[in-house]
Design goal:
Blueprint: E1 17-20, H1 26-34, H2 42-52, E2 60-66, E3 69-83, E4 86-93, E5 98-99, H3 101-106
Antiparallel strand pairs: 1-2, 2-3, 3-4, 3-5
Helix pairs in contact: 1-2
C-alpha cells in the first residue's frame, strides 16, 4: 500500500435545498445576518429595509436548508439597469450570502 492510497477520501457534502423564505424563517435569518454585520446590526436592518421598501419588483428571499435547518440566506432586491434607450427593472443580490454556523458542520461552508 502506498502513502497516496492510504489517504481517506473526503466525505461527500450534504446537499442543501434552496427554497423561498417563510415568515417563520425570519428569526433565524436575522440571527444569521447579525453574525455577518460586525456586531453593529447594519445587515439585519438592511434586510428589513429592503423587505419593506416600495419597488417595482418585490424582493425575493431564499433560505438554504439541510434536514429542515437553515444553513444560509440570500436576498434579491429591486434594481434598475441602464439599458440602451430605457431603464429596465431587475433584481440583484443585495449582499453576500449569509451562511449560518450549521453550514460548516453539514456543507463545508466557512
Amino acid at each position: 500500500m502506498t502513502a497516496a492510497s492510504s489517504v481517506t477520501p473526503p466525505t461527500p457534502l450534504t446537499p442543501a435545498l434552496l427554497q423561498p423564505e417563510r415568515d417563520d424563517d425570519q428569526r433565524e435569518v436575522r440571527a444569521s445576518t447579525s453574525r455577518h454585520s460586525a456586531g453593529d446590526g447594519v445587515v439585519p436592518r438592511l434586510v428589513e429595509a429592503l423587505r419593506a421598501a416600495e419597488a417595482p419588483i418585490g424582493p425575493l428571499s431564499y433560505v438554504a436548508t439541510v434536514d429542515d435547518v437553515i444553513v444560509g440566506h440570500v436576498l434579491l432586491s429591486a434594481c434598475r439597469l441602464d439599458a440602451p434607450h430605457q431603464l429596465v427593472d431587475g433584481l440583484r443580490r443585495s449582499f453576500p450570502v449569509a451562511p449560518s454556523p450549521h453550514a460548516s458542520e453539514c456543507c463545508g461552508v466557512r
